[in-house]
Amino acid sequence: MDAIKVQVILFWAAVTVYVAATCLNLIAIIFRKPNLTNFSPCLAVIGFLPHTAGIILRWMQTGHFPYWGKYEVFNSYAWAFILLYLVLFLIKRELKVTGTVLFPVAFFMIGIALTGSKETTEIPSTFLTYWLGVHVAFAKLAYGSGLISAFFGGLYLWRAGKSNTDSGEDVPGWVPSLDFCDFYTYRFAVFAFICMSIMIGAGAVWAYKAWGRYWGWDPVETWSLVSWFVYGTLLHLRVTMGWRGKRGAWLSIIAVFIVLFSYFGMPLIYDTVHEHLEL
């Protein structure tokens, strides 16, 4: 059995576990059985093991971390999101609620990855650099933390709406308090902003080493900068004008949609040097 077939089997094994975790979370939500979410970290570990094995096998096969083409990029993003979930759980157990969004995103990304070409291709020498690795790593952290910030923002709006209509009697037990949601909407927005800053800085250094210029107004570069400004504005409004609660929640959701547009939309609309790194 060749390396690619083994990778596909490993990734499908991970998908199966992530789907199971997603279904378990849905059952916990629909039937109000919050204790079922206690199994999520165990399932994350079970799925993460074959997922990691597949990533390592691809790395050994190509000689570089998986960041080239749809098959590698989406698999590595899904891997990074599950790793982020496990780290968050170890830091604070209550953050296991983030699995509600990270599990389905992960298996959806792996599904997209498996539709891409799995053949290895020669990568230009300009892409084989330490700074590109830093750029890609912090892009994954930025997008993952932005997604979690928007998730907590959505939970805040949901819980606030329930509280306004029926005194919170129908709020499921797994939904954190308003203060908890607001706190982590802001904290993950801060982390996304920091990671995005490092991502852009490392990308600029890589661009200088590759093409002799720090900035070229590539479409993905430009929209990454727009995303950075949006998160900076979100944090500025919170600190200086007290924009928290519903306004902060809505801003976090708007911000992640802009990030998604820069990630998915730009490579489809315009030619970009990020095409192989993004899709």
Task: Give me a quick take on this structure.
By secondary structure, this protein is mainly α. The protein has nine helices and no strands.
Characterise this structure:
The protein is mainly alpha-helical and 279 residues long. It folds into two domains: 121 residues; 156 residues, no CATH class. Helices cover 76% and strands 0% of the residues. Helix 5 runs antiparallel to helix 6, helix 6 runs antiparallel to helix 7 and helix 7 runs antiparallel to helix 8. The chain starts with a helix and ends with a helix.
What integer is the average pLDDT? 81
- Work out the count of structural domains: 2
Total helical segments: 9
Q: Please tell me how large the radius of gyration is.
A: 19 Å
- The biggest beta sheet, please? none
Question: What is the H-and-E element order?
Answer: HHHHHHHHH
Which parts are unreliable, with pLDDT below 50 for 5 consecutive residues or more? none
Number of strands: 0
How far is the N terminus from the C terminus? 27 Å
Global geometry = flat
Q: Give the helix level as a range of percent.
A: over 70%
Q: Tell me the strand percentage band.
A: under 5%
Structural class: mainly alpha
Membrane topology: Multi-pass membrane protein
Organism: Thermincola potens (strain JR)
GO molecular function, one term: heme binding
Protein name: Cytochrome c assembly protein
